[in-house]
Design goal:
By secondary structure, the protein is mainly beta. The protein contains one helix and nine strands. The model has no long low-confidence stretch (mean pLDDT 92).
Length: 148
Amino acid sequence: MTDYPIDENMEVTLHFTLKLEDGTVVDTTREKAPATFQFGDGNLPPGFENPLKGLKKGETGCFTITPEHAFGQQNPQNVQLLKLDDFGDETPEIGMVMSFADAAGGELPGVVKSIEGNQVEVDFNHPLAGRTLTFDVEVLEVTPVTTH
């Protein structure tokens, strides 16, 4: 059996741990099933995929992913002021993650930042925007994608 390097048209199975600058674990597969994806299919942002290229089964890596290559920088335009009345029966609380409908009818998560009178400040930036992340991986399997 050939040890294939990770590249286009390869299916990759790996364990990963994603950490913040201070070592706080954001996400990990270590306690559960490993992640499997097709390299280049868009499931992983390019900033996470690019460092994996060339790794083989059994190899590990620890990569620092800057905000530009992870979830982007904080964008002040993604912080919106909404009216308390817009929340209907829901009572927003600071720190609460709420789901809002975007212009295309999809769901957009937002974090309630502040509440003053009838004004609610909601941050629609990705929770990891502006953060430098550490991406630890252990490659378990690399196989060519087979078309059925």
